[in-house]
Design goal:
Length: 182
């Protein structure tokens, strides 16, 4: 076994691996806390898995969605580009009913939710996902030392009203909803 001193330089690749492991732990801890303290009975939170993506692909055939997201591309791009990302899928009755993906801002002092979407209502009844997703991102923010959560580019005034019910306020200059975490 090599004997490394504290002054031995660490490669960029090794720094990335260390950061990835640390943020993997933050993601796991956030999901555990979400399942333990935020999820209503019958709801579970996981990362966005391939099984979740298979279900989410079925959302594409419904025309009454506010936006059409390519979740496979989002998952791939965030996974490749943002090792500090956070992602969540909420499950009920064996199917995902909502998903969100985001990451810390470049300065690291804030967390941004880039995309959040619920299962189309035409696919059946589902629980409200907003409170649990916002709460999960708030937990993640606390773990990484961020001071606020931003929901980026809400698609319309109706969506902004939903987030406002949870204490988020709209920043027109940045086109996001924001709430401080404590």
């Amino acid at each position: 076994m090599a004997n490394l001193s504290l002054n031995t330089p660490v490669s960029d690749t090794e720094h990335r691996r260390i950061a990835q492991r640390r943020y993997d732990e933050y993601r796991k801890s956030t999901l555990v806390a979400t399942n333990t303290s935020l999820c209503p009975p019958g709801i579970t939170a996981t990362e966005i898995t391939n099984e979740a993506l298979d279900w989410i692909d079925k959302w594409d055939k419904y025309d009454r969605r506010d936006s059409y997201w390519d979740w496979r591309k989002l998952k791939h791009d965030h996974g490749r580009l943002y090792p500090k990302r956070f992602e969540i899928a909420l499950w009920e009755k064996g199917r995902p009913i909502g998903a969100a993906i985001g990451r810390p801002t470049y300065g690291g002092g804030k967390t941004r939710i880039d995309v959040v979407e619920g299962m189309p209502k035409e696919m059946g009844d589902r629980s409200n996902i907003v409170e649990t997703i916002l709460g999960a991102f708030e937990i993640y923010s606390i773990l990484i030392g961020a001071s606020e959560v931003r929901v980026m580019h809400p698609v319309n005034a109706k969506v902004r009203e939903v987030y406002a019910r949870y204490g988020y306020r709209y920043s027109e200059a940045g086109d996001y909803m924001v709430s401080e975490v404590t």
